[in-house]
Design a protein that fits this description.
heterodimer, A: alpha+beta, two-stranded antiparallel sheet, 5 strands, globular, B: alpha/beta, 10-stranded mixed sheet, 12 helices, 14% strand
Amino acid sequence: MDSVAPPSPGPGPATSRLRPAPGVGWAVEMHGLLLRGPGGARTIHYPAAAVWDLIARGYSLERVVALTGHIADLDEEGTRALVKEAIREWVAAGYLEEVSGDG
Amino acid sequence: MANLALTASCNRGCGYCFAMNYLESRGGAKAMPLETLERALDFLERSGIGEARLLGGEPTLHPHFEQVVDRALERGFRLLVFTGGLIPARALRKLASLPQERCSLLVNVIPPGEGRTAEHAAQARVFRALGPRVVLGINIARPGTPLDFLVELIDRYGLARSVRLGLAHPVLEGENEFLHPRHYPEVGRRVARFGALAAEHGVELVFDCGWVPCMFPDGAMQALGLGPQEVGLRCNPILDVMPDGEVISCFPLARHAVEVLERYPDAGVLRRAFRERQAGDRAFMLYAHCAGCEHRAAGRCSGGCLAGSLRRVRSTPFTVTLPGGAAPSGAAAGQERGRRSIPLPILHGSPPRGPETGGATCV
C-alpha cells in the first residue's frame, strides 16, 4: 500500500513537481484524512481527502481527476477545479512543497 | 512516577517486548552505573516521587543489584521491581529479606503453554519465596491470551490479590509482536469475563496504559469499576530513565525523543516537555472511527496508545507532477471520466455526494 509508483509526466511544456514537506504525515480518518505538518494537524474532508490519498498512492494526476470525479459525482471541469484548489491550498499551507532542481 | 531501567540485559525473550530492541540498539552503559543511579534517585527525590521503580531488561541481572536495592532503601524510597520472574538466587534472597512494606514485585507471568518448563519452575520459586510481595502482571499480545490461571496462581502461592493487565503495544519504528487494535473488542470481552471471576476471588484488576473504553462491552467498565483515568486517558509520558541516564517518554515511543535528567528540575517539567513535543501527534488516534467517537467527544478517551496511533500515519514520500501550473491536463482526464468501470480505490468512510469543496478544517 505504501509503495509509490513513479509520477507520470504531465503533458505540456511547463511542469512543476510537488512533494510532501518534511515531517508531513497523514492517516485516513472517519471524516476524511488527518494531515500533520508545519501548520499543525488538520482534517481534510472528502472528496479533497481522496485527492491526497490517491496522489499518495502513486496515481497520476489524470487518474486522480478521473477517480475523484466518480467519488464526488462531479463533471470534469468541476473535478479539475476541485483538485487544483486542493493542491493550491496544500502548497499554501506548507504541506506540499515544490521539488527544486534534481531533488 | 518514573522508571529506572537498570540494565539492558534480559533472560527472557518475549516477542512483544517493547524495551529490548531499543535498549540493545543503544551505545553506552548496558548496566546503570551506581553514580548514575544516584543521579536518578536525586531526580526522583526532587520530583517528590517516593517509589523507585526498577526495570530493565531484567533489573535483577544488574551486576550490583543488591547495592542498588540497599542504596534506594537507605535513601528512603520504596521499591517496585518489574521482573520477568527469572531472578538469580542471590537477588531473590535479597528481595526476600526486605520488609514487605518497602518492596514489591510486579512479575510478568509466563502463561500456560508458553515458555519452557524450567522457566515456569523458576517463576514458581519466586512466587514461593516472595508470596504476597508479588503482584502478577500479564501483557496481552494475542486475543486468546489466557487469564483465568492468574487467579489460580494467586490462590496457590498466596500472592498479592491484584493483577496488572497490560496490552502489548507496538513499538513505533519497531518490529515487536503486539495486539492489533482490531482484536481489542475480543480482549475487552474476555477481560470483562475475567473481571467477574477475579471479583469472586477478591482479586483487583489494575490496568496498564493504552486501554480504550470502546473495547469493552456495554456495562463492563462500570462492572469492573473503571473510569476514564484507568481506561481511556492513560497514555502519558511515563519517564523511563535509561542505564546511561538519558530519559525517554516510554519505550514504545523511545525513538521519538530522548532527554537528559540534568536539564530538568523535576519529573513534572520533563513530562510537560514530552507532552508538548507529542502535542501535534495527539491528533492521531488508534482507529479511523475515533474522530466520531462519543467517548472522545465527551473527553473520556484520548484515542489509545500514541505509538499505536502513529503506526497508522503514513509519510511515504511521493511526488505529483503538475502540467503547466496547478491544473491537470484535460484530455486524459476526460477519457478516464467516460469510463464507468474504473474501480474506486479503497477509502474508509462514505464520500459525500455533491460538489463539496476541499476545505480543510483545523482540529
